[in-house]
Amino acid sequence: MAALNEIPFIKGHGTANDFVIVADLLGKRDLTADEVRFLCDRHTGIGADGVLRVVRTEHVPEFSKLAASAEFFMDYRNADGSIAEMCGNGVRVFIRYLDAVGLITESDVVIATRAGLRECTMNPDLSITVDMGPVGQPETDAIPLVGIQDELWPAVAVLMPNPHAVTFVENLDEIGSLEAAPPVLPPTIFPDGVNVEFVVQRGPNHVAMRVHERGAGETMSCGTGACAVAWAASERYPNMDLTAEGGVQVDVSGGTVFVRLLGNGHLSLTGPATLVARGTVLLPA
Q1: Is residue 104 within 8 Å of 62, Cβ to Cβ?
Q2: CATH class entry, domain 145-265
Q3: Out of 40, 120, 222, 227, which one is annotated catalytic?
Q4: With left for phi above 0 and alpha for psi between -120 and 50, is residue 266 left, alpha or beta?
Q5: Which residues, other chains included, contact 106 with Cβ-Cβ below 8 Å and sequence gap of 6+?
Q6: In a designed cystine with 79, which of 48, 99, 167, 216 is the match (CB 3.0 to 4.6 A)?
Q7: Is 222 one of the catalytic residues?
Q8: Over the Cα atoms of the chain, what is R_g?
């Protein structure tokens, strides 16, 4: 009888943006795209928006130079098996996991990601704050146009460093389903695909959003998307102060996060992270 391809996992979420966490500290198991799709399938697998593979940075050849600053590397995969540069909700869940299993003992932690090093703090209220890095924009004068209900709406292009097209609307319900990717034109602005956010203002320093994440469909939350939305809103509305002590409140379908502009020019993201289950899973042969 063939041996079962069985691996342990933990399931967690950040404002209902959910992840399957797989520990691979020595870098011996590089999950295939098919395996990631299986794990994230909500009918035939465990179900998640993505997979967080936990590896000691020294065992990730292309990022091993970061090992002196960050013991652990977050290998993040989208639900369709593709690789993303960064995941703000995923970082918080990643930190919660490291703490829960005793791999870290301090409240301030630096981890390595494909977007570089990320400084994280576990707060007394059990929220986690992540330095998400600086805001970027594509090197183009073209304005992205997002298709909504057979109309094209102008959007703001933001890199966090994941690509985002932030679109301001009057009502979040009017955009309909976001399971399929809304068309974004011209395609040359985002050649590797794009996350699309739709935003309404709720009040001073307060917005709400929905998001289609590339490789995952509509998700309950997107950390880099919340940062992109807060920054774009602060550029659009005079009563949005990213430097305020509490930052900008961003309501997502799965809860609330807060985005603030730091003195170093980076954005910080603060929100909850929760672990909900653990077990083993049989990967397809």
Answers
A1: no
A2: alpha beta
A3: 222
A4: beta
A5: none
A6: 216
A7: yes
A8: 18
Question: pLDDT 10s per residue in the chain (285 long)?
Answer: 345 689 999 999 999 999 999 999 999 998 999 999 999 999 999 999 999 999 999 999 999 999 999 999 999 999 999 998 899 999 999 999 999 999 999 999 999 999 999 999 999 999 999 999 999 999 988 999 999 888 999 999 999 999 999 999 999 998 999 999 999 999 999 998 999 999 999 999 999 999 999 989 999 999 999 999 999 999 999 999 999 999 999 999 999 999 999 999 999 999 999 999 999 999 987
Give the Cα separation of 115 and 278 in Å (integer).
28
Distance CA 116, CA 91 (A): 12
Domain boundaries, the chain: 6-133+272-282, 145-265
Give the tokens for residue 149.
């209900």
Would you say 67 and 81 are in contact if contact means Cβ atoms under 8 Å apart? no
40 catalytic, yes or no? no
Q: Does the N-terminal peptide bond of residue 161 adopt cis geometry, omega within 30 degrees of 0?
A: yes
Q: For the whole prediction, is pTM greater than 0.90?
A: yes
To the nearest 10°, the Cα dihedral for 35, 41, 45, 50? 60
Within 10 Å of residue 267's Cβ, how many Cβ atoms?
Answer: 25
Domain 6-133+272-282 fold is Diaminopimelate Epimerase; Chain A, domain 1 (3.10.310)
Catalytic residue (choose from 40, 87, 120, 227):
87
For residue 132, what are its two tokens?
A: 């998400």
Closest CA to 234 of 223, 220, 250: 250
Tokens read off for 73: 């590397």
